Amino acid sequence: MYKRIENFLKSQNCIKNSDGSYDVPGDIEIPDFLIVKQKLAVTFRRVEGSFKLEDLELATLAGAPQYVGGHFIVRKNELKTLNGAPKYVGASFQCQYNILKSLAGCPAKIGGGFYCSHNMLTDLKHGPREVGSTYDCSYNQLNNLMGCPESILGDLNCSGNYISSLIGAPKSVKGVFNITSNNLKTLIGCPVELNTFNCACNELSTLNGCPIEIKGIFKCAYNCLRSLKGCAKKVGSFDCRRNRLHSLIGGPLTVERDYYCDENPLTSLKGAPQEISGTFSCENANLKSLIDGPQKVGRNFIVEKNKLHGLYGGPQEVGGNYHCDEQKTGKLRDFTWLPAKLGGELHCNHITSKTIIPAKSLPALNRYEPKVRYIDWKDFHRSILDFRRWIPLDSRIRHINLTPQQHKELQMLSILQV
């Protein structure tokens, strides 16, 4: 066995020091025969590249290098402590899937990310005070974030713990702050500077403590919220699905991309922004009206599975598709508020031969081509001749509430039946 170890070290260009330890000029991945009785059979002092010792039932870091220029990887072992860990790690420190109960022995500064997920940690004390990118402490037994660095340059992932408050949270997270699937009851102590914030699947009943602005996605879905009071006022995208909201009052005033509020007992869209650049989705709620909802939607507008009888108050401009199928109260009866401008298709199985379509909404039906039989020209002030490409060329259609001039123009197009 010793000959095998010697040949391996030689193949890695290892340099033996006067104290019997070894330096490695590049990367090294430890083979199973270099582990004897759950510990390293030789001692390393300095590794210029990465040091990888994965899934080999290692129980101690005795013999591990004290300097690692690249990544230090000891995932999927049986480590109970980090005593003996390197004092310097230039890239990431990866100790996931062990049985760690403490971070004692961890270097104070790590050049890359720190990954200690899937252990048995109850706190982050003695962990690194500075990391170069991501900090992942997910799926442990944490109750709070005491011991976490004050600033995270990448993502902070603490999902799958028992965290009930944000005491000890960093002041700034440059990447994604993921604290899903915990016992979080309040956002007090939340980082002041956030890019993307995911606090879904918790026990939040309030958003007090939330920062004023979240540049990326703010996801507070699957909580116990009855109000959006305290919410960030400006977000990239917003997702508050599966809560107990009856209105959107207190929610963000500026949403730069998508807004999802599906599966709430919403009876009103009051509080929604008037303009959404992306998709607005409020599916499977209790809406009876679209009043107070957004008037301009850049992509899709989705209000399926509500209690709507009509589309009054809905957006007048939709850049994508308009979905209003499967209303809980039966078929829609009032289409006087279809969008004047629709970039995609109208998904609505409620239009029948008895449905009266307002003339101004004909462009919205251009691609859908339902069995329109009635067109109402009331309050239409444009020239019909300029509008002719949207008028169905079907002599069976009845045109109602025409002015004398409109009557004449339709006769000129030879499609009038009054």
Describe this structure in words.
The protein is mainly beta. It contains three helices and 34 strands. It has an 18-stranded parallel β-sheet that branches. A five-stranded mixed β-sheet has the order 1-2-6-8-10, with no helix packed on it. The radius of gyration is 31 Å and the shape is elongated. The N and C termini lie far apart (about 100 Å). The mean pLDDT is about 90.
The overall pLDDT, averaged over residues, is 91
Structural classification: mainly beta
Strand content bin: 15-25%
Main β-sheet description: 18 strands, parallel
**Strands, count:** 34
Low-confidence stretches: none
Percentage of residues in helical conformation: under 10%
Number of contiguous helices: 3
Provide the gyration radius in Å: 31 Å
Global morphology? elongated
> How far apart are the first and last residues' alpha carbons, in Å?
100 Å
Q: Descriptors for this entry?
A:
single chain; 418 residues; mainly beta; 18-stranded parallel β-sheet; 5-stranded mixed β-sheet; 3 helices; 34 strands
